[in-house]
Design goal:
By secondary structure, the chain is α/β, with parallel strands linked by helices. The protein has 13 helices and 16 strands. Helix 3 packs across helix 6. It binds 1,4-dihydronicotinamide adenine dinucleotide (NAI) and 2-oxoglutaric acid. Keywords: NAD, Oxidoreductase.
Length: 392
């Protein structure tokens, strides 16, 4: 089996591949792809491609529907880089409150003069700031990162407000009881001195689901004067032109972004970090290991864990002679056609697992026959079947 890495993937993860797996530079030869932030929307995928693993959380660089249509399972690695991002968000809170960046840059301008120590004591007043303790922080999106940020800020003495209409049970369990749970984004906007966004980028007509450009002139108008906004999620969550106006007027005191672009990189009042949230040894290792383990389980057993376009499915390890995995549409009458195809060829089904997610479904069938070439051809011809894999 061949794998291609579209971005550098930590060696400790790639080492989990056995000798059954071989690295390729040719996308057309790849059975599986590992990716971080590389843009995949314009790529064409061959029938050979079976799975893509995003070593990270955000999957907006991957065409999920196109992949699902081609029977390509897309995985991500939820939570594996959350601590790395949390730590940088805390740094962002402090950097936006104390002019650390301005001060450090200023020292570079005086470093060759004599009496630097005296100059520092004389000039440091221009970089004085505020403390974060006692201030109000609003966290929009209480997933793996948002929960860690909320709890850490709370431990640093901030009063933390959290908003997430789709919060998972796990996140709810992990959230400190001190976090003030609010029911609308507006409650965050009107109350908080600092606002940090930790949602995926979602474009949707329902404004409660949509996150694209959720920070815009309307939402900013509802915020406190001098608010500080942090964006370690995706640049398109914030409308750049609106933040520019708000920074100029002082309505927004600072905008900290991990996603500088042509506009924000040149904006006064912006602290621009070059997408370093997950760039730690630990996060990169965690993501790579999780991605490779999930890919191997899919390739070797047909199991799906942490997919973002197909249902999760655990069929365990196959103990019979053969295992066939079918990626198909979630429409009526599929299972009866599958079992009919096997019975027409007199093949006994030992076990079957069927799972669905939205428009797509996944069926794993264990059989007592070891040569399943004929039944695979039959299954492939069924309307609504997107891909058939012989796992064993
Ligand atoms: N700067 C960086 O290097 C990194 C950035 N990210 C970005 O951060 C985002 C969040 O990452 P994780 O916390 O790991 O993901 P996650 O999936 O654990 O959490 C996302 C949370 O957002 C919530 N959410 C979704 N739509 C919402 C809405 N309309 N309003 C409020 N909450 C909403 C979900 O319910 C979920 O709890 C990722 O999608 C990615 O874009 C993630 C990792 C690294
Ligand atoms: O791989 C990276 O460094 C980017 C991490 C990220 O943005 C994500 O996981 O969503």
């Amino acid at each position: 089996m061949k794998y291609k890495c579209l971005n550098p993937i930590a060696e400790v993860g790639l080492n989990i591949f056995t000798e059954q797996y071989e690295k390729t530079d040719d996308m057309n030869q790849a059975d599986i792809v590992l990716v971080r932030s590389a843009a995949m929307h314009e790529m064409e995928f061959t029938d050979n491609l079976k799975a893509i693993a995003r070593a990270g959380a955000g999957v907006n660089n991957i065409p999920l529907d196109k992949c699902a249509e081609q029977g390509i399972v897309v995985f991500n690695t939820p939570g594996a880089n959350a601590n790395g991002v949390k730590e940088l968000v805390i740094a962002g809170l402090v950097m936006a409150s104390r002019d650390i960046v301005g001060g450090v840059n200023w020292v570079q301008t005086i470093k060759d003069e004599t009496g630097v120590g005296k100059l520092v004591e004389k000039g440091k007043g221009q970089f004085a700031g505020k403390e974060i303790e006692g201030k109000k922080l609003g966290v929009i999106g209480l997933g793996a990162i948002g929960v860690l940020v909320a709890n850490a800020a709370n431990r640093l003495g901030m009063e933390v407000y959290g908003y997430d209409p789709f919060i998972s049970v796990d996140s709810a369990w992990n959230l400190s009881r001190d976090i003030i749970h609010v029911k609308s984004r507006d409650d965050i906007y009107k109350n908080c001195d600092y606002i940090t966004v930790h949602t995926p980028l979602v474009e949707h007509e329902d404004p409660n689901i949509n996150t694209k450009e959720m920070i815009n002139s309307d939402s900013i108008a509802k915020m406190k004067d001098g608010v500080i906004i942090l964006n370690f999620a995706r640049d398109l969550l914030v409308k750049d032109d609106d933040i520019a106006v708000a920074l100029k007027s002082g309505k927004v005191a600072k905008y900290v972004t991990d996603f500088p672009n042509d506009k924000t990189a040149n904006m006064e009042g912006v602290i621009a970090i070059p997408h370093l949230g997950a760039s730690t040894e630990e996060s990169e290792d965690n993501c790579a290991m999780m991605a490779v383990k999930q890919l191997r389980d899919y390739m070797e057993n047909g199991n799906i864990r942490n997919s973002v376009n197909y249902p999760n499915c655990d069929a365990g390890v196959c103990t019979t002679a053969g295992r066939i995995a079918i990626l198909h549409r979630n429409i009526p009458n599929m299972l009866s056609q599958f079992t009919g195809a096997f019975s027409a060829l007199d093949i006994n089904i030992s076990d079957m697992v069927n799972k669905s997610r939205g428009e797509y479904a996944y069926t794993v069938i264990d059989v007592e026959a070891s040569d399943n070439t004929e039944v695979v051809a039959k299954l492939t011809g069924i309307k609504g079947v997107l891909k058939v894999r012989v796992v064993k």
